[in-house]
Amino acid sequence: MEFRRGLSYAARAVSPVTPDERREAIAAQVEKAVTNTQVFDIHTHLYDPAFGGLLLWGLDDLLTYHYLVAEAFRYFDMPYDKFWALSKTRQADLIWDALFVQHSPVSEACRGVLTTLNLLGLDVKKRDLPKLRRWFARWKPDAYITRCMEIANVSRVCMTNSPFDDVERAVWEKGFTRDERFTAALRIDPLLLDWPATAPRLAAWGYKVSSDLSDRTVGEVRRFLADWSRRIHARYVMVSLPPDFVYPGEHLCARLMDTAVLPHCREFGLPFAMMPGARRAVNPQLRLAGDGLGRCNVVSYEAIFAGHPDNKFLITALSRENQHEFCVAARKFRNLHLFGCWWFTNIPHLVNEMTRMRLELIGLSVTPQHSDARVLDQIVYKWDHSRRVISQVLVEKYLDLAQTGWEPTHMEIKRDVKALFGGEFERFCGVPARGEPAGAKPAPRPVTARTPSAAAGVASRS
Ligand code: FIX
Ligand code: ZN
Questions:
Q1: What protein residues have CB closer than 5 angstroms to ion ligand 2?
Q2: How far apart are the first and last CA of the chain?
Q3: Which of 41, 43, 44, 45 is the best mutation target for the ligand 1 pocket, counting ligand atoms within 8 Å of the beta carbon and taking the most?
Q4: Is residue 300 within 8 Å of residue 2, measured between CB atoms?
Q5: Bridging pattern class, strands 278-279 and 292-293
Q6: Residues lining ligand 1, CB < 6 A?
Q7: Which ligand 1 atom is at minimum distance from the Cα of 343?
């Protein structure tokens, strides 16, 4: 503190601007740039509206988000099965009562619901759940997507697309006109993490695979990846990995990566996103809310980056304890791009810590956040909360520079925020080599282009 004050006095000697005035000026410029810059949300679980019911939205979906289910069960004493047997509306009632009425909703996920409602223009102080529900019932998905993207100032979202999901696969196979605001990512967890169960499925879909990893099987896995990368116009290929993942090794996952996935990504010019640290079904009774986390071995990942200089890797790690190691890895491997504060790290305390650490170690060559939204409306709060923290960190960083006399210009601040909100991701990913037929890459466009008037957006929810 003393040190900073000393520098401020020195700065004041050559400039009429006081430290407080300088902070205010920089903060105002950063906040404006952060608020006004559109985001490309590079990892979500949202769906193009053509997927119908797979796109979750509205109050009951917000309240039954698995983050809130996990928190509510800390208060519930009912058996798990009894809760799961209830309708979504009834589950939402119970969660609302436990987390919002019986206790103040201070957790990040609870606060998120209130931020969303507030920014949608709803009055949360009355705590009137039926009235809030009536407001949501007036919307139709298309108009509501536009509204949420407008409020969140998100231009595009990347979906998580799994050919192994029967409902989703059927929609892709039938075909539909793409909504250009929804980009695709090819999710392949079952392929890499459960080959014995996945091989028969591929065989049933016409790929000539057997359970061994013979040359023919590997060739057919690559044909499967090629078909699906083309079909969905994948922007990247992705997998979540358990903390005990080891590379190199004889495990099927490492072997499939080497023989099929990484060569496929090279051929198609697609980054491979790895999400280390997920421990699935730590408490299976909580279903989707029952996953936990663990620290991964970054040495294994460094071996992948080093061994595949012609592949590009995206990483978001789940464990706080891995964040520093991955920042250092990113300094060593330019084929690695870090992104997002994933899931349990998406709380203001850790977003602040991680964003600060990343900027201090790798500058602006990072995508500090993705929303991971599972419910459309969540982009509203997740981006509002993240923007606040990113803004605070940037202000501190620019003030540190200003102490040296390097005052950022308005244009420089805008440029930097654009980089953080999708620009660096695009630069890192580059243009896919073969995955997308000409003209298939959706062009970013302002979300306002589709925005009907608010009145036109209000209609019965089917
Ligand atoms: O694997 C993932 O992409 C995770 O984000 C999800 O599995 C998780 O359930 C989630 O929604 C986290 O935010
Ligand atoms: Zn996710």
A1: 372
A2: 58
A3: 45
A4: no
A5: antiparallel
A6: 45, 160, 240, 275, 278, 288, 343, 372, 374
A7: 13
Name the packing angle between helices 88-96 and 129-136 (round to 10°).
140
* Closest atom of ligand 1 relative to the 278 alpha carbon: 1
Which sign, positive or negative, has the C-alpha torsion 411, 414, 420, 421? Answer: negative
- In the block, which residue shows the tokens 């000697």? 13
Cα–ligand 2 centroid distance for 49 (angstroms): 19
pLDDT tens track, the chain, 462 positions = 334 444 444 444 445 589 999 999 999 999 999 999 999 999 999 999 999 999 999 999 999 999 999 999 999 999 999 999 999 999 999 999 999 999 999 999 999 999 999 999 999 999 999 999 999 999 999 999 999 999 999 999 999 999 999 999 999 999 999 999 999 999 999 999 999 999 999 999 999 999 999 999 999 999 999 999 999 999 999 999 999 999 999 999 999 999 999 999 999 999 999 999 999 999 999 999 999 999 999 999 999 999 999 999 999 999 999 999 999 999 999 999 999 999 999 999 999 999 999 999 999 999 999 999 999 999 999 999 999 999 999 999 999 999 999 999 999 999 999 999 999 999 999 987 755 433 344 433 333 333 333 333 333 333
- For every residue of 307-344, DSSP letters joined together read H-TTS-EEE--S-GGGHHHHHHHHHH-TTEEEB---GG
